[in-house]
Amino acid sequence: MRPEAADVLARLRRSILRGDWPRGTRAPSLADLVSLHGLNRSQATLVLGALAEEGLIVRARGIGPTVMYDPEHPPQEAPEP
User: Fold this and answer.
1) Is 55 exposed, middle or buried (0-12, 13-18, 19+ CB in 10 A)?
2) Phi and psi (nearest 5°) for 61?
3) pLDDT digit string (tens) for 4-26?
4) pTM of this structure
5) Does residue 29 carry a pLDDT above 60?
6) Is 10 helix (H, G, I), strand (E, B) or coil?
7) Is the dihedral of CA 16, 20, 24, 26 positive or negative?
8) Which residues contact 17 (CB under 8 A, 6 or more apart)?
9) 69 neighbors 18 (Cβ within 8 angstroms)
10) Residue partners of 68: CB distance under 8 A and separation at least 6
11) Which of 14-28, 32-46, 60-74 has the lowest mean pLDDT?
């Protein structure tokens, strides 16, 4: 993952873990990551994939990425902020 994508990933992860986006909130879409954060589609896909793999978001076609992490009820092994 390129450094700029890793930076975006770290910022999004921190925001989700802090509870800035409550469970059920739409996370930035692929298009958002491209237009707002200047990532290319490949790097944006890697960022969303990493967040999904960590269990922080779920990706659903037609709905977009949705935050699944709840800081009030974290999983037993929550990812580090």
Assistant:
1) middle
2) -60, 135
3) 999 999 999 999 999 999 999 99
4) 0.83
5) yes
6) helix
7) negative
8) 56, 69, 71, 78, 79, 81
9) no
10) 23, 55, 56, 57, 58
11) 60-74
Cα separation of 76 and 41, whole Å? 33
Tokens representing 42 are 């490949």
Neighbouring residues of 61: CB distance < 8 A, sequence distance ≥ 6: none
3-state secondary structure of 19: coil
| Length of the chain, in residues | 81
Positive or negative: CA dihedral 9, 37, 41, 75:
positive
